Amino acid sequence: MHSTKEGTSGSRGGLMEMVSLTVPQSSSSNSARMAGQISQRARRRSGTVALVFSCCVVAVVLCMVFLVSPQSATGTQDSSEASEAVVHNHHHHHGVSFQEVKHRPSGVHADDQQWGESKATYQATMNQSLPYRTAFHFQPTKNWMNDPNGMMYYKGWYHLFYQYNPYGALWGNIVWGHAVSKDLVHWKYVDDDAIVGGPKWYDLLGAWSGSTTFLEDGTPALLYTGWSNVSSVVQIQTQNLALPVDKEDPLLRKWYKSEANPVMVAEPWMDATKYRDPTEAWKGKDGLWRTLIGARLTDNVTGTSHLYKSKDFVNWTYSHDIHMINGTGMWECPDFFPVALKGKSGLDVSVSNGMVKHVMKVSLDNNKHDYYSVGTYNEQTDEFKGDSPSIEVGIGLRYDYGKFYASKTFFDKKTNRRILWGWCNESDSDNDALTSKGWSGIQALPRQIWLDPATQVDLIQVPVEEVDGLHRDKVSRNGFTLTAGAVMPMPGVHGPQLDIQIKFLKPKLEQSNALFEGSDVAALEAQLTCSRTGAAHRGYLGPFGVLVLADEQLQEQTAVFFYLQVLKDGTWKGLICSDQSRSSMQDDVDKTVYGTYVRVLESEKYLSMRTIVDHSVVETFAQGGRTVVTSRVYPTVAVDQAAHFFLFNNGSQDVQVHSFNAWRMESVHMEQLQF
């Protein structure tokens, strides 16, 4: 279904004629805009419906666990008590369950009556000023933010653009916000609306996501999606170009829209309402620029990426679809980039030969998860093929198994890294709550990303090393036992801003040699297993891990843990889980137990976990970043300095801790750039 340039021009002209009849400012135009905004809000949130069934299953399982588990008093113990614990009997609790120990501290109880009383007290005194704003994650001072866009390093500054509503904390009126940084950690806000000139007919209802490409002369160029209306009931999406007003300005404070816009429009056979989010462009050996547009075929079930080509970055022609997968639905925010077979260094997007593979990543509008596939890009045919059908785009591996969406990478030419950004939306998503709070959405910590040389399948993600510059007050302890049933505070480790890095010795039990497919079916099975077990489950090998944002009585706690599932043949395979079920006394927040299987190589001696806590976000990197889970939580008691930390082991077997390191994280004060 190839198209000619003439065909593209013709369809563009037709759209221009339609728009010229509907754009005049009138009451009907305003009504159309309102209808479009409502339609788009539905578009951004429609993926929620796809999760209803699985969420219901999880809820039923959790309810069954709670109903059959006798409630008990709970307590804490320090490390010396943990090592000398004498077991009397086993109890279960809503959160972590553990064993009653000798010399148990007094006054640390959280039975159902106290839970109810505390919850009632909380609900009577609830106010929206509770400290859920992060201290070192990027977020605007106020209002709504979603997708990261157009990141780059330019003339000494890192640039981050983002989808932003300058008028409120709900989605709508979307423009490109802009911030700059010298180190990816300390940010200054540049502008609430970087692309100047006001709405044009092609982005009348919003300037949506896109990417930055460096032209041959070094000028950065933005490709972005415009959303507009062609009638009171029909909206369209087009691709548009913006260039810096002054390319010598290292801060790139203002951008203007090209007179050639829109530079790409949907072909007549395409769905113009499912046509968005251009990738960074790359140049082939034939001298032509290439970019991908996320889309869905008109069968309503096949996700795809349209490939466009251009000689001059202004006149673009549709070529063909580089890759498509049936049953995956709309592909948002596609990303396409090379990775080296060895080493951590990143590559410019135009590198396609030598010892490289390519990554195709898409954000599925159906379920709001980011999926990727590692494979081969054929430069001659402009086609991508994943290495394994079972872990193809949209049905296989994810960047993150929690709250992480609409991600985008860029090549940091300063340090030769490929860096990943992603949006973490709120889980207290009631509109009234967001409006009262005055803000919504954060960006996950920027992550360096590279191909796992050991598996050639997984991508490794770790926070950029600049994040370590926020470390303060290190606490270390090596070579100790986390006894069965232990809940153990670590002196000096507390608060809502932490970086916890732990290595557990693997059990001597033989590992399963079953093939780890990483498919979406396996991911659902893993999440259900995490939900069915939860931190309160008493297994043979786990759950064991950490409790963060916990109050002293363990009424509130966010548990991040390994659970080693023992199979019928006596071998094990590991899961990493993030249990939000007891993270807050609020009822109207997400309390999902997120998790997945984690690939642990037989050659690896340890189960490693790095958990970074920042008030309302918990990011966990397992096995050196091979698997990542991000959670948003909203404690009501375990806030600020009332937030405590514990190690725990709810399994029936002791666990050996090889190394434990923890730091308090310094706050970052983001401010408006002064011109």
From TrEMBL:
Q: Which domain of life is it from?
A: Eukaryota
Keyword list, A-Z:
Glycosidase, Hydrolase, Membrane, Transmembrane, Transmembrane helix
Q: Describe the location of the Glycosyl hydrolase family 32 N-terminal domain by residue ranges.
A: 137-463
- Provide any one GO MF term from the record: hydrolase activity, hydrolyzing O-glycosyl compounds
Q: Which GO terms describe its biological process?
A: carbohydrate metabolic process
Start and end of every Glycosyl hydrolase family 32 C-terminal domain?
A: 511-663
**In the UniProt record, does the keyword Hydrolase occur?**
yes
Q: List membrane-spanning regions.
A: 49-68
The record's similarity note reads: Belongs to the glycosyl hydrolase 32 family.
From the Swiss-Prot or TrEMBL record, give the protein name: Beta-fructofuranosidase
Species this protein is from: Marchantia polymorpha
